[in-house]
Recover the amino acids of this structure.
């Protein structure tokens, strides 16, 4: 119950801050720890403790004007990682979620699916439920920031779509995630 209250409080604070117009979405992608890349990044996400981060316009140009495909734009980043047994969006991924919410708000015809995933630990049923809570928490945050309910679909794959087949903490950290997919991609 306390998790829901914290989420509600944090989301309400973010919603209050969202009234400030901005076109930039800075991200300091610190990943799993100081100086390390995000789990499963394989160079796809930039930044780090000393790396400066990524800045991109939510409606910006690049690669034919599609910010979703511009590797320099925050919108090209599509994974939100979670702590073990948690569906609370980590602070470091909030700018990413905010940027996608802003994009949906500015592009009312855009549609996305948020896919919730878990690591291999726990029963299939538990992990399906946890993956759904993770996807729903990102959707809830985006709708509070201006996206509409019908723009975002959520689905849980539980432990069925691991990004890393390993059986250790680093593999599990890569698998505890939401993936954001836009319709038509």
């Amino acid at each position: 119950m306390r998790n829901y209250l914290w989420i509600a409080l944090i989301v309400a604070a973010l919603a209050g801050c969202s009234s400030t117009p901005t076109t930039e979405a800075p991200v300091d992608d610190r990943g799993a720890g100081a100086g390390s890349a995000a789990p499963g990044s394989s160079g796809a996400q930039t930044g780090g403790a000393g790396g400066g981060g990524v800045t991109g316009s939510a409606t910006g140009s690049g690669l034919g004007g599609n910010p979703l495909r511009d590797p320099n734009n925050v919108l090209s980043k599509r994974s939100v990682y979670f702590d073990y047994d948690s569906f609370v969006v980590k602070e470091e991924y909030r700018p990413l979620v905010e940027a996608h919410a802003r994009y949906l708000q500015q592009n009312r015809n855009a549609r996305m699916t948020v896919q919730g995933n878990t690591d291999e630990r726990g029963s299939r049923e538990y992990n399906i439920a946890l993956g759904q809570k993770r996807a729903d928490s990102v959707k809830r945050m985006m709708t509070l920031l201006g996206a509409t309910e019908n723009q975002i679909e959520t689905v849980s794959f539980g432990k069925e779509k691991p990004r890393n087949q390993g059986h250790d903490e680093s593999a599990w950290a890569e698998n505890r995630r939401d993936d954001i997919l836009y319709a038509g991609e």
